[in-house]
Protein: HNH endonuclease 5 domain-containing protein
Organism: Thermanaerovibrio acidaminovorans
Amino acid sequence: MDLRHLFIDERHTGMCVYCGTHPDTRDHIPSKVLLDEPYPPELPVVGACKKCNSSFSLDEQYLACFLDCVIHGGAEASDLHRPNVKRILEGNPALQLRIEGAWKKDDADNLIWEPEAGRVRNVILKLARGHAAYELYPKLEKPSIVGFAPLRILSDDQRSAFEQVAGDDEIDLWPEIGSRAFLRAFGKSPDRLPLSGGWVVVQPGRYRYSVSETGGVIVRMVLSEYLACEVVWEL
């Protein structure tokens, strides 16, 4: 069996994983704007319609730039770490000004950043739908939880619970046979992305995710080792 081309891919080729309509394109999950060059080999791709594939782009650019500005502590493009973020902000002064206007200082002179939560949520839900479809099956319905927060503000217990991905002896419902999540549960890689503690590491230090099917479908993501995200579809 060629692990790179599973039957689940054939079964889902007639559906945009975001809206359920006919897919005209293939979409990378995660979007390349959230990664650095050189990009990892065999990035996950899912079927998407042209409308959905293009409708998330501006929000994804915003989130990628916002995160790098927060991590750096400023929105001056020339001082940022990531080359693709620099290029975006240098070519889009309006976005740079918008991000610059998202921070303020509190009474203790600490820098406080206020993201456009709707745009962040839009990207996180899009990513979660893509990961769910790639690893298990499409989840088009509304999730019960869409949450995100900086890793550094989580308590030790919250961080431990978030990082813990169910191991072999903890799985009470095996993923669907033949799915990528099923293969990963047995330590087999259906692609060239490494596993670390149950997390699929798309790019070290930049993006990792996990998909589990315990009490529903749970998708967790960590962006730039800064933003912790969780989307849950309960049974």
User: Anything to note?
Assistant: The longest strand covers residues 216-223.
